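User: Could you check the structure of this?
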Amino acid sequence: MIMAATTQGNFHTATGRADTSGVLDDGRLGQPVRQGIIRAAAMAKESEEKARSRQHAKGKRTARERLELLFDEDTFDEMGRFVGADIGQGKPGSAVITGFGEVYGRKVAVYAQDFSVRGGTLGQAEGRKICRLMDMAIENGIPIVSLIDSGGARIQEGVAALTEYGHIFRKTCQASGYVPQISLILGPCAGGAVYCPALTDMIIMTKENSNMFVTGPDVVKAATGETISMEDLGGGNVHATLSGVAHYLGADEADAIDYARTVLAYLPSNSQQEPPTYAYASGHAEREASKRLASVVPDNERQPYDVLDVIRNIVDYGEFVQVHELFAPSAVVGFACLEGKPVGIVANQPLVQAGSLDVDSSEKIARFVRLCDAFNLPVITLVDTPGYKPGSGQEHAGIIRRGAKMIYAYANAQVPLVTVVLRKAFGGAYIVMGSKSIGADMNFAWPTSQIAVLGAQGAVNIIHRRDLQKANDEGEDVDALRKKLVTEYETTTVNANLSLEMGEIDAMIDPEQTRQAISESLLTFAGKRRHHLVDKHHGNQPL
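Assistant: Sure, the predicted structure tokens are below.
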């Protein structure tokens, strides 16, 4: 929006014309509008018309149309509309729009790259506008949203343009963990520019027109001889399913922007505040949902089920907002509310690889737990895993190094941590999935749950290897003996009673008590505060 002071007359945003009469709407006399203001208004109107014609032809919205979707109606206040412009020569301003608006009534800072102006490229004017916005957001503790649609660094400005990216990188790192930062990729994002969103808390892409890559298809072909399309190299689907770069894949721009608004609704404005709370009154629906939990998880430990059915029967209204839904599907992470208060949820997904942990799911969980811990969201962990995925592929992919990230995230988290073992928790996976020993505040287990170093079948094959071999040599029924030994192992070792007796499990609860147990635990630890055990600058997280 372009606004002129009342002493300078009126600007009609609908027509793009300025009233030069000096007569205000209420009949009072004001000073005539200067010609520069008139030219600026006309140039703004013409610029947006050009943007619509260019962007709509590509199936994309203009930067300003995207801002209308992001913010509550009539809440966006723009800063520096004509920075970098030459009004006298009719040259538009910079290729980025900056300002503040409201999302569900709370202030949010935004910068939106405008591809219709110099291809959305970034030069000194754009970089300085973005950094100024980020400084103001950090100073005032306001979330930052970036709408990316850019041709990258402005070649004509050379190193000066690259320098501005360096400044933005540094500001993003300074803001990290203090204010939420969300990036929406709504067009091209290539070269060094990809690290602007890569440093933020969440990246949202769209199925169409959204690309991210360090080196484009032409460079790849020249360097390696590989021929590949932009979509196959760095499209939204690739980054949402294979690389894990994108946390959400929107069906279109409206869906992507709506997801950003939804995520912001669960997060506080900054790390010094508590997440927003919402009015909620439990009733018949919650009681019925709790009863359904008794039949969701099969008795047979090898039979799969959808852990989303468990989550939706625990949280308010059954509403669960997944993060990284299409990536590393053997684990599920996302936001929900309990008694009107936002929480983060981590769960194994038995439908995929029996819920085992691998390199990707470990990083997925670690990143999400760190996000929740940074912004004061309690973490609820639902466990049903046979352990880590075995194989040379996982070892060579760095399961030791990458799996350690998950340990680091849980062990350093200082928000309330509540864990429920739904069915099985074996080996190292039991430890890292929010166990008491790694720092959880309250740990529960369902009555039929199994907790052990190894599953019964695997343990018997190792412990009783000689007994089974002897039975085979003597012509005895090996399968019958194995079954007997498995039953004994499950009775004496695998059941959760041992963990209960050791204090590693605080209580054995029936499935229908799960929501109540978690809610009461969160109420108990609502006053949990951060503390520093040792004086240090920071730890050396495995990366």
